[in-house]
Every structure is written in structure tokens, then in C-alpha cells.
Write a structure and sequence with these properties.
It holds the Pfam family Hydrolase. Keywords: ATP-binding, Cell membrane, Copper, Copper transport, Ion transport, Magnesium, Membrane, Metal-binding, Nucleotide-binding, Phosphoprotein, Repeat, Translocase, Transmembrane, Transmembrane helix, Transport. The protein is an alpha+beta fold. Among the domains are: 141 residues, HAD superfamily/HAD-like (Rossmann fold), CATH 3.40.50.1000; 117 residues, Calcium-transporting ATPase, cytoplasmic domain N (3-Layer(aba) Sandwich), CATH 3.40.1110.10; 64 residues, Alpha-Beta Plaits (2-Layer Sandwich). It has 29 helices and 32 strands. The strands form seven sheets. Strands 16-28-27-26-17-24-25 form a seven-stranded mixed sheet, sandwiched between helices. Strand 7 and strand 8 form a beta hairpin. Helix 12 runs parallel beside helix 27 and helix 25 runs antiparallel to helix 27.
């Protein structure tokens, strides 16, 4: 595939296959993602359309083990190994071929290696599959090498011929021996054209067979007509109309030289673009040290199983997702979650494959494998976004579909006009104009403008902890004017703690036990805090039956036969229960102090009140400030009580706040804003947020939130920082701006280049654009689009690290952070007490940051 016309042809062919419901074709990556239909039938449909196609295979066969041995005399020890394999697993299947042992066994791979080591053998597993990303990189390198070779040959022949003509070292066609000389030149040029441009001519023939046209058609017509017309002049030098006409053999090969040079540069730039996903794949190591009863051994990650015990030493990468079982360490998750500071990990904490163990030794059990790992999910979402097309891209496809036929008509019209009314010799002018129009027209630049920017933008977003599900989400995020955010878990830490407990009609311990039993099966952020409080109190939790979640109101279930209901003030009103005066006074006082209230009702009788407080996230103020600087108005919508929500909004400078909302009321807030002509985004992390997320123009899900919220979101934020929303909006705007720049450049180039090539300026300039110069312009137009898109790889704010001394408590951390956030140009500030560091993002200079910390009463110096 070379241009948008090719993409359209391939999509039509795939969609015509029985059973196919969806097809997305990516020009940059030369991939197609197809839903439905037979894979073999889809591949054959693409081949029948005139393009090459094969199925991508990237999964290893974990049932088939391949073992290689060092310093082993296979002939003498083959029998001994067969006996050993049979003894270890009587049901095992094994075969020795291609210098490797191939085993089918139920033994754990690590146990097999350890047993072999005990028997004195040095063995290791051989990966049984090829990395598709490595194969793509190798194929791209070969393609670039071929382009250089083709360009070099065509350039040497073309330039040599042009210089010979300019210096008068070539004979006239009509001179003695001239015809033979030029016939030899024609044959040489034909062979060069076959080597340097054969794929263009084959592609054009295939398009002709299917009554279609693409960039290959334009190149084949342009260079082919130049060579053929020159050959006719050589064969009929005495023809009246042909006398004095110019030969175009040099142009026919030089055009290909410049095109191949441009193609090589373009492919090289595309490969740089594709490296973003490849770098994500390369984050996770391919080997893992597995701990078994007999010892530890290293095996490929592809052979791990859920529950395997893995050991990582300081400096090692975490090979797979898991949960810490033993050891304490700090782990650098910056490449995956954006946390610039290492995170402390201890037993029970999760680990993400691809992160780096910085200090202590850890042992952890594997919790997720293959496509279920965090890194695999990130790569999948990036791939999906890159394969999708935004609205602006679909418009370009419609224009590109008619581009080539229109260019051919313009070239033919230019040829006829110059042939009929042009100066002498008319055929030379007609050929020059016609060939130049065919060569200068560039559907490739139009076709690349959108997908190349989407590819770079979504890859860069993933590196900055923003996973964009599809390019429509990218485009809608760039237009946002309002952002609706939930309070709990979004603006606050999402890890509230029970600070006060009130009981009535039941002993406090019994009331807490009943409440905890119901909350144990709830996914609400407050549930975990209640359970944690019960754990610290040593209260055991009973089993619950008949559990129901009343969205936005509360939960209920039966515990030991008793109906237990928990929820906020709205739930209490629905149950038509009025609190006693002591309860009411306590509730009013706690609400005034921004406490969240959970009422406990047992068998229809109000029995308890739990008060929870959830502190603000350290970066919430910076996030709100950054969004407001982008022209986005932030609105809080929460199911929490009015006073708690108002307190949070006031502390963050948010003007609009809605409290005690049900899910459908959050939905109505979003709809109301949209009806006023606003573009509305929604950030949430819970089941209650799913309807509003789906209604919003752009839905943002916190990566640590529930699966339901993530499923309904257009953009998932890896980690839990609201600053990532600002990042998502910023890079979305930059990507759409880049697409518009690319399209503007491509359209202007064609609108100016095609008329110029047709000779529109001849009355003013007195000359026509030579076809070889047209080919240079055409090649550079595509390269320019790719290079411009690659600027997105460097998107992001400047980061400065400060060493801060004098901090002794969390209060000091807050003081330093507030001082830094008040500095103009600061978007984000993360302060770590233990490390004594502050990582600041934004355009502010290091000197002003240091001065702000000093003015706050602490010592500071810049480390970067």
C-alpha cells in the first residue's frame, strides 16, 4: 500500500468478505484489523485485490517446550535423556530434531530444568516464536536498504546521461550510429526502470486489472510515457511531428531515483514513529527467575504460570504482573504509571511487569499472564487507537478516493492543450507538462497526513500515561470546554478513613460487623475504608446473601437473616427514615467539617452512622489549575453530601459543584451542558460514573478504577493522577493541530504544484517545470508530512528536579508543594519527604523554583 487510494481498495475488498463486520486499515503500519470473517478468506481477498497479505502470529505455544544443551554429545547421551524424560513424566512426548529436544510434558518448565541441572546437564529453553515487532523492524531496514540501492543505480545512470547530454557528448538520433546509441540507452534505462521501479509498474497493472488507480498508476504513467515517447522518437527520427523533439530517457530514471530516495527517507521516519510501541514491548524482560522447592532457575516469561513464585534482585526489571509475597523495596513505575518517584512495595502490594526494582530483593507470585497484563493492555489500546480513523480522516479518505482519476484527467488535458496550441516542438512541451502533472501529484502525502499523526500522538500519549481507545476520542478531547469530575477517588485520594462511629439501638461492634459484611461485596471506594477499620478493630465479618447495589444510593444484603442497608442521606430519605436528634446533630456537625456520611439501617431501624474523610490528592490543585489554563471549566458532580463537596470545590478554586447526585442526575448534568452547546468531558472511576462517561463527548476513566468505568471511557488514565487529564487534552489538541498542518500542507502543495506542472505559469516564467524536479517535490512532500508528525514525539512539559532540605513532616511537604504551584508556569509538583526531592513540570525556570522553596523556609538546589 502506498496511498489513501490503496487503503480504500483494501478496505472494500475486506468488507466484501462474508462475515466481516468491521475493517480498519493503517497505511503507516501496513496492517489491517478485521472483526469477523475467515482469516484465510480475508488474506486471500487482499491478495486478489493486488496486494500482498499474511496473517500476523505472535503467540508462543506454551505446551511445546524446546530445550538446547551445552557441551552435550547427543549421539551417546540421547538414550540417557530419553530415559530421564520418561522417568520424570511417563506421559511425556519427546523428539530430538534440528539439534533441539522438543518436549510435550505436564512438568513445570522450572522443575524440568532444575532436575536436569541435578543430573549434570546444562540446558536452557529456546523461544519457539518470533517477535513480530522485531520482524517489522527488520523488514523496514531491508526496505530502506532496497530504496537506497534503487535510488543509487537510477541516480548514477540518470545523472550520467543528463551530464553527457548537457556537455554535448551524445550523438543526434539522425547522426551516423546515433540510432543504435540511443537504442542501447533505451535498453539500459528500461533495465534500470525495471530494477528501481518494477514494483510501481506491477502495482499499476494490478490496479488496472481491478479497474482502480493509485500512486503506482501515476508513477507508472509518468515514467512509462517518458521512456516510451523517447523510444518512438528514436525508432522514427524522420517523422515530421517528431523532428526536434526532446528525449526523456534521463528523466524516466531520475524520477525513479528521487522517488526511491524520498521513499527511503519516509520509511526511515516511519520506523522512528513505530518505535514507540516497540519500546513499550521492550519494557518487560523475556526471562524470569522462578523459585521452586529445589532452588531457583531462569526460564522464558512465556512459560510462566499463574501462581509461580518469581524472584527479582535490585536493579532487575519486574518480568510480569504479580503481588509481593516477601521483601520490601522501592520500584520505579515511571515508564508505566508516570509516578516520577519510586513507589514503596511490601507484601500484598501489586507489581507491574516492566517496572524496575530499585533497592531490596523481592519475591512475588504471578497474578496475570499474556494479554491480561497491564503492559499488554496498554499496547493493545495504543494499537486500537492507531488503527482507528477520526472524523477528519474519513473526510480525507473520500477526497483521496477520487484524487488519482482527477489527476490523470488533468494530465491528459494538459498534454492535449500543449500538443494542440503549444510552441514548437509541441510534443516536447506536451510530454513535459503531462509527465510533470502525473509525477508531482501526491496522494501519498494526503493519505499519510492523518494516520501518521494519530500513530505518533497516541504512542506519545501512552508514554505519558494516557491510553486513547480510538481516534474519535482523541478528536473530541481536543475540543473540550467543560470537564465534569467525581470527587471521591478523583479529586481526593480515594482512600478515605473512618474517623468517627455513632451507634444506636445496637452495640457498636455488632453494628460494624453487620455493616462490614455488606460492604465486603461492594466496589464503592468507601467500602474498602470501612473494611479496613473493621480489620484494625479485630471485628470478624460474616457472610452476606441477597446482595443488591442501588446505584448512587447505597447497598443492601442479608446477614444472619437480618436485612442490612447502607447508604447516604438520599438513601435514608428513600427509605423514609428520619434520624434521631443526636444522630442529626452529629451528621450536621460532621458534614460541616467535610465528612462523608454512611448510614446503617438494620431491619428497618437506624442503627449507626459512619463518618469518613478522604484527603485531597497532592496534585489536585495543580490539575485543576492546569485545566483552567487550557480554557476548560472544571465542574464537580458527586453523590457525597453538600458540605463535603462544597468544601473540596472551594479549596481547589472550582466554581460549580453539584452534590448528593444519583447516577442519572450526573447524566443530566452532562446532557444539560451539552444542550448549551458545550463540549463536555467526564472523569470517573466507579460503576456510578458509567452512564455519564458514556454520555460525555469524551469519557476519562482512572486506570485504578472499576472495569465498568474503563469500558465506558474513551480515554483511560494510567495511574490515578488527574493531571493526566490535562496531559490528554494537551496532546489531543497537539495531534489534531498536527493533522490539520499536514492536510493543509498536502492540499496547498497539490493545489499549487499541479497547476504549476501543467504550465499555468508559463506565460509569466517562460518555462515548464521539468519532470525530475516534479519528482523531487513529490518525494519531499511525503517526507515533510512524516517529519512534521514526528515532532509530536517530543511533546511534553519541561521537568526540573530539586533537592530540598529541611522538610521534617507532611506539613512541610504541603508547604513546599504550595510554594512551587504558586510559581507562574508550573503545571505539576510532586514532593517526596523521604527522598527530599521535588519534581516539577512546566515552563518555569529552575532559579524561580529554587527561590520559591527558599522563600517558604527551606533550602533547595536544582539537580536537573
Amino acid at each position: 500500500m502506498t496511498c489513501a487510494s490503496c487503503v480504500a481498495a483494501v478496505e472494500r475488498a475486506i468488507n466484501a468478505v462474508p462475515g466481516v463486520t468491521q475493517a480498519a486499515v493503517n497505511l503507516v503500519e501496513k496492517r489491517a484489523q478485521v472483526v469477523g470473517g475467515s482469516p484465510q478468506a480475508v488474506a486471500q481477498a487482499v491478495i486478489d485485490q493486488g496486494y500482498g497479505a499474511y496473517l500476523l502470529e505472535s503467540q508462543a505455544d506454551s505446551n511445546q517446550l524446546q530445550l538446547g544443551f551445552q557441551a552435550l554429545d547427543q549421539a551417546t547421551q540421547q538414550v540417557a535423556l530419553e530415559r530421564l524424560f520418561s522417568r520424570l513424566d511417563p506421559q511425556a512426548g519427546f523428539e530430538f530434531r534440528d539439534a533441539l529436544w522438543h518436549l510435550q510434558t505436564s512438568l513445570h518448565p522450572a522443575d524440568l530444568l532444575l532436575e536436569l541441572e541435578q543430573q549434570g546437564y546444562q540446558a536452557s529453553f529456546i523461544e519457539s516464536y518470533n517477535d513480530p515487532y522485531a520482524e517489522e523492524a527488520s523488514a523496514a531496514a531491508k526496505e530502506i536498504r532496497r530504496s537506497w540501492q534503487r535510488a543509487a543505480l537510477a541516480g548514477v545512470v540518470g545523472i550520467g546521461l543528463m551530464v553527457a547530454e548537457m556537455t554535448g557528448n551524445t550523438p543526434q538520433v539522425t547522426a551516423p550510429g546515433g540510432q543504435s546509441y540511443w537504442l542501447a540507452v533505451a535498453i539500459i534505462c528500461f533495465l534500470v526502470m525495471r530494477f528501481s521501479g518494477g514494483h510501481y509498474y506491477l502495482g499499476a497493472l494490478k490496479q488496472l486489472k481491478h479497474r482502480s488507480a493509485n500512486m503506482d498508476t501515476l508513477i507508472a504513467l509518468g515514467t512509462g510515457s517518458a521512456w516510451l515517447s523517447s523510444l518512438i522518437i528514436v525508432l522514427q527520427p524522420e517523422g515530421m511531428i517528431l523532428q526536434g523533439e526532446k528525449l526523456y530517457f534521463d528523466a524516466s530514471v531520475l524520477i525513479l531515483a528521487f522517488l526511491q530516495l524520498g521513499h527511503g527517507l519516509e520509511t526511515r521516519a516511519k520506523r522512528t514513529t513505530s518505535e514507540a510501541v516497540g519500546s513499550l514491548v521492550g519494557l518487560a524482560p523475556k526471562q524470569a527467575e522462578v523459585v521452586r522447592d529445589q532452588g531457583s532457575v531462569t526460564i522464558p516469561v512465556s512459560l510462566l504460570a499463574i501462581g509461580d513464585l518469581i524472584q527479582v534482585r535490585p536493579g532487575d526489571k519486574i518480568p510480569i504482573d504479580g503481588e509481593v509475597v516477601e521483601g520490601v523495596s522501592s520500584v520505579d513505575e515511571a515508564m508505566l504509571t508516570g509516578e516520577s518517584l519510586p513507589q514503596k512495595k511490601q507484601p500484598g502490594d501489586p507489581l507491574i511487569g516492566g517496572s524496575v526494582n530499585r533497592s531490596g530483593q523481592l519475591r512475588f507470585k504471578v497474578t496475570r499472564l499474556g494479554e491480561e497484563t497491564t503492559l499488554a493492555h496498554i499496547i493493545t489500546m495504543v494499537r486500537q487507537a492507531q488503527m482507528s480513523k477520526p472524523e477528519i480522516g474519513r473526510l480525507v479518505d473520500r477526497v483521496s478516493a477520487i484524487f488519482v482519476p482527477v489527476v490523470v484527467l488533468i494530465a491528459f488535458a494538459a498534454f492535449l492543450v500543449w500538443l494542440l496550441v503549444g510552441p514548437t516542438p509541441p510534443l516536447s512541451y506536451a510530454l513535459t507538462a503531462g509527465i510533470a502533472v502525473l509525477v508531482i501529484a501526491c496522494p501519498c502525502a494526503l493519505g499519510l497526513a492523518t494516520p501518521i499523526a494519530i500513530m505518533v500522538g497516541t504512542s506519545r500519549a501512552a508514554q505519558m500515561n494516557v491510553l486513547i481507545r480510538n481516534s474519535d476520542g482523541l478528536q473530541s478531547a481536543s475540543r473540550l470546554t467543560h470537564l465534569v469530575v467525581d470527587k471521591t477517588g478523583t479529586l481526593t485520594q480515594g482512600a478515605p478513613k473512618v474517623t468517627d462511629v455513632y451507634a444506636e439501638n445496637l452495640p457498636e461492634a455488632e453494628m460494624l460487623a453487620l455493616a462490614g459484611a455488606v460492604e465486603a461485596v461492594s466496589s464503592h471506594p468507601l467500602a474498602e475504608a470501612i473494611l479496613d477499620h473493621l480489620k484494625r478493630q479485630g471485628i470478624e465479618i460474616a457472610a452476606v446473601t441477597d446482595f443488591h447495589n442501588h446505584e448512587g444510593l447505597g447497598v443492601e444484603g442479608r446477614v444472619a437473616g437480618k436485612l442490612v442497608q447502607l447508604g447516604g442521606s438520599q438513601y435514608l430519605k428513600q427509605l423514609k427514615i428520619t434520624p434521631s436528634e443526636p444522630f442529626l446533630n452529629a451528621a450536621n456537625q460532621q458534614s460541616a467539617e467535610a465528612g462523608s456520611l454512611v448510614w446503617v439501617v438494620v431491619e428497618g431501624q437506624l442503627s449507626g452512622l459512619l463518618v469518613l474523610r478522604d484527603p485531597l490528592r497532592s496534585d489536585s490543585a495543580a490539575a485543576v489549575k492546569s485545566l483552567q489554563n487550557q480554557g476548560v471549566e472544571v465542574i464537580v458532580c458527586s453523590g457525597d453530601n453538600h458540605r463535603a463537596v462544597e468544601a473540596v470545590a472551594a479549596s481547589l478554586g472550582i466554581k460549580q459543584a453539584h452534590s448528593e447526585l444519583l447516577p442519572e442526575q450526573k447524566l443530566e448534568v452532562v446532557r444539560s451542558l451539552q444542550q448549551q452547546g458545550n463540549r463536555v468531558g467526564m472523569v470517573g472511576d466507579g460503576v456510578n460514573d458509567a452512564p455519564a462517561l458514556a454520555q460525555a463527548d469524551t469519557g476519562f476513566a482512572i486506570g485504578s478504577g472499576t472495569d465498568v468505568a474503563i469500558e465506558h471511557a474513551d480515554i483511560t488514565l494510567v495511574g490515578d493522577s488527574l493531571l493526566n487529564v490535562s496531559t490528554a487534552i494537551g496532546i489531543s489538541r497537539a495531534t489534531i493541530r498536527n493533522i490539520k498542518q499536514n492536510l493543509f500542507g498536502a492540499f496547498v502543495y497539490n493545489m499549487i504544484g499541479i497547476p504549476m506542472a501543467a504550465g499555468l505559469l508559463y506565460p509569466v516564467t517562460g518555462w515548464l517545470l521539468p519532470p525530475m524536479f516534479a519528482s523531487v517535490a513529490m518525494a519531499m512532500s511525503s517526507v515533510t508530512v512524516v517529519v512534521n508528525a514526528n515532532r509530536l514525539r517530543f511533546y511534553g512539559p519541561m521537568t526540573t528536579t530539586l533537592k530540598v532540605t529541611g522538610m521534617t513532616c507532611p506539613h512541610c511537604v504541603n508547604n513546599v508543594q504550595k510554594a512551587l504551584l504558586d510559581v507562574p508556569g508550573v503545571d505539576r509538583a510532586e514532593v517526596a519527604l523521604e527522598e527530599g526531592t521535588a519534581v516539577v513540570s512546566g515552563s518555569a525556570q529552575a532559579a524561580s523554583l529554587v527561590q520559591a522553596v527558599v522563600d517558604a523556609g527551606y533550602a533547595a538546589e536544582s539537580e536537573s
